[in-house]
Predict the 3D structure of the following.
Amino acid sequence: MTITRTNEYLLGMLKELQKLPCETEWVEFKKNNAKPDEIGEYLSALANSAALMGKTNAYIAWGIDNISHEVTGTKFRPESIKIGNEELENWLSRLLSPRINFHFYTLNYDGIDVILLEINSASSQPVSFNGQEYIRVGSYKKKLKEHPEKERKLWRLLDITSFEKGVAAENVTAEETLRLLDYPTYFNLIKLPLPENRSGIFGALKLEEMITESKSGNWNITNMGAILFAKKLSDFTHLKRKAVRIIQYKGESKFETIREEVSEKGYAVGYDDLMRIIMQLLPSNETIKQGFRKQASMLPELAIRELVANALIHQDFYASGTSVMIELFSNRIEVTSPGLALVKIDRFLDSPPKSRNETIASFMRRINICEERGSGIDKVVIETETYQLPAPIFRTTDEYTQAILFAHKELKEMDKSDRIRACYLHAALRYVQHSPMTNSTLRERFAIDIKNSAIVSRIIADTIEAKFIRCQDESVGTKARKYIPCWA
């Protein structure tokens, strides 16, 4: 659904709603009734009913008679209503779960004021207001739990509807479709010549499910088409918050921000620009080789590319009001992605990857933005070992998944947890490569001189004590022992 709503478009939409023979499950007409609680309940009911009816949006129109559908005008002004000190729109959004996109529009209909509320349909789960889910039964608002057959049907629909196939912009013209999507870059990325006519362009985009035909003969842009190839994500209401944020801080804390940027392009079309911005903002170190001074990034680009690609592809797009965030510090980079990791963080290296967005992941693999299944995190760990960096940290909560890459530290600067983490990831990496870790391989990982191998033995002992690794065969001598992850 495009965020660019002209008055002409909205008036046209309102006139189409007026033509309906009666109020439906996804449309409500009112005059002045604007009780905040009731609006919230209608938001829940209409969003859920729109999903059941296969509609992208639902609507409430104030200033339209609910029987004749004639324009009567309204005194309702949403911007003037406050609950306590909180504005109506913020209050409603806070009490909706999950939060969905909705917007109030003030229209002038032949000199008469009308308010149109546009509501995105439910997507990942039924929408509740203040802890209660609602549904429309005909033109009546009811509690969803009182209609178990509708509740079961709604859950079935939401379970089988992937994010990628959802509609980002509904019933747009061919001209508008080409304006919103960077289709030349699509053909460039898949290494095909740009078709000479519109038929070839639209045929290819339709085959990729970037667009679908609407019933009226226009086009629907899918979420997949928009998230990958939007010229500006802000052109799509429920995707505008999915633009990637890049924040550069001074020093090692968030106390002072130096720069903040938002990458507005779709992920496929904007990925190279996104990486360019990151690498330009990332601190660099000066090295001297063969008498020449050279600036080198403090972190390997390949590792960053993998983490950023993973964050974009595997995020929970249904997590409202949040996006992938990349934070740059003087000693590290933090890449944060919305949603709980689908694989346990200590099994990132060996578990088959699970993706919420497999169609997007598959396309990004085709255009070489991300690696083949399961090899991305391997490469991150390999890069950190090659450049003698501290092991990355992976974290997950119910709300986000985060990866942290650190700049170089001498072994003496690493604390016990740093060493244990590096030892575990080294053992896990060696295991998936079918070559168990030994004292010697870990010594090479840390660049420890052979005369200081006792340090490596201490790190291995600490990691065993922490129950991250175990000896593969304790019957052999200490020097010949091999170590594998505890889960192996």
The domain at 167-234 is CATH 1.10.10 (Arc Repressor Mutant, subunit A).
